[in-house]
User: Fold this.
Amino acid sequence: MFENTTTHLQLLTVRLHIPHAQSLKEKRMVIKSLKERMRHKFNVTVAEIGQQDKWQVATLGIAMVGNDNRRIHASLQNVITFMERFGLCEICETDIEEL
Assistant:
């Protein structure tokens, strides 16, 4: 059906610290804003995948699909740079894996 089609999927997992959040509501506002901006700017899928009940930490899963592994990896590196510059959170750990 889809002959000669190459599809690549990479997953970026990011552990964040949100130092100014004093409640789950404040944390969710930061995470929601970050997720919406990443979706719009990079056309990625984003979900909070861990520590939903903690005030100042979060784990996000960011996925990207394409036909060029190098381009996907470069785009995910740009996502990391964007998150570093976002200003409302700090990146504690990142991991990119090819699925």
Observations:
- The longest strand covers residues 8-17.
- Residues 48 and 93 are 15 Å apart (CA to CA).
